[in-house]
Design brief:
Oligomer: single chain
CATH topology of the largest domain: Rossmann fold
Distance between the termini: 32 Å
CATH superfamily of the largest domain: Vaccinia Virus protein VP39
Helix content: 25-40%
Strand content: 25-35%
Number of domains: 2
Largest sheet: 7 strands, mixed
Shape: globular
Strand order of the largest sheet: 3-2-1-4-5-11-10
């Protein structure tokens, strides 16, 4: 079990705590993706593979809009959480445990749209692993289909290499919840420690550790173009309404 799988297995039951209102964010993010899909010529009849689905933040919202959604992830614990959340909301999603570096081992079909949101691709800690992941993802997109993903703005972050992310403070019925990250850099990679502090009737601290490689936009653009995509564009938060830069690659 690698560090990424362990990180998400351990975080699965608490992942929703990173949001002020996970339900509201699910609907908002689905709306953002729906606009991107429609602007690229797709309707809600499109087939979607969320290959880094986590607890279903994007997959559930898109299924609620009518998209035919398949969700996969390396973390079985997160898939279990996502399945329970999908069943509770009455949406139909196919769930599969899969590594997005080897999607062809699980899926023999191609999809209209493949997505990987919330900084999933920078979990690839070497350029070779990232290239393998991009080729695997591109291989599951049908002709004229698209990939949509998001990463942190590493082009900017590599200039300053911050040692932490600003805390999020969420008020709850019984107190407050504080979440923040510390970042320990080594070259273009960093160890991330995610803290979640529940300060309600009693204080409780949870700690989760992972690693990322700061992936620049030029590298991702080049990899998708050399993996069979004909066009790549980037949407920034002021344009898309999403909190990270979004890549859209056309097969």
């Amino acid at each position: 079990m690698n560090i990424t799988q362990t990180f998400y297995d351990n975080l699965a039951s608490q992942y929703h705590k990173l949001f002020l209102d996970w339900e509201a964010d699910t609907k908002e993010q689905a709306g953002i993706l729906d606009r991107i899909f429609r602007s690229n010529g797709f309707e809600s009849t499109a087939t979607v593979l969320d290959c880094a689905s986590g607890i279903g933040t994007q997959a559930i919202g898109l299924a609620a809009l009518g998209y035919k959604v398949t969700a996969s992830d390396i973390s079985q614990a997160e898939l279990n959480e996502a399945r329970e959340r999908a069943e509770g909301r009455g949406v139909e999603i196919r769930f599969e445990n899969a590594d997005f570096r080897r999607l062809e081992e699980t899926f023999d079909q191609e999809f209209d749209i493949v997505i990987a949101m919330d900084n999933a691709l920078p979990h690839m800690l070497t350029s070779d692993d990232l290239e393998t992941a991009v080729r695997s993802i591109a291989g599951r997109i049908r002709e004229n289909g698209i990939f949509v993903g998001s990463i942190r703005d590493y082009d900017a972050l590599l200039e300053s290499k911050p040692s932490y992310s600003p805390p999020y403070i969420h008020k709850t019925d019984k107190g407050q919840r504080v979440s923040f990250q510390t970042w320990e850099w080594k070259g273009d990679s960093y160890k991330l420690i995610q803290y979640i502090i529940d300060d309600e009737e009693t204080a409780a601290v949870s700690r989760f550790e992972c690693e990322y490689r700061a992936t620049e936009r030029e590298e991702l653009t080049r990899l998708f173009l050399t993996s069979g995509c004909s066009r790549v564009l980037w949407l920034f938060p002021e344009e898309s309404g999403f909190y990270q830069p979004i890549i859209v690659a056309r097969k």
